[in-house]
Amino acid sequence: MSATDKARNKVDNLAGKAKEAVGNMTGDPRTRDEGRGRQAKANFKDAGEKIKDAFKK
CA-to-CA distance for 7 and 2, rounded, in angstroms? Predict the structure, then answer.
């Protein structure tokens, strides 16, 4: 996995956590759910990169 992809996934994950926290603090379920979705997307991408790396070896 390239360092750029790994960093981008980490940033997306952290942004999702921040958005989820804002949603929890404000009581906005839509914002909270968007944050959770962004985290899931980042985790899915990270898993895909790890699978690609495994097949390269």
Answer: 9
Written as one letter, the residue type at 17 is: K
Give CA separation, 40 vs 11, 17, 33, 55, in Å. 13, 10, 10, 23
Over residues 1-57, the pLDDT tens digits come to: 577 888 899 999 999 999 999 999 999 999 999 999 999 999 999 998 888 888 886
32 in Cβ contact with 16 (< 8 Å): no
Return the DSSP state at 2. -
| Rounded (5°) CA angle 51-12-7 | 60
18-34 pLDDT tens trace? 999 999 999 999 999 99
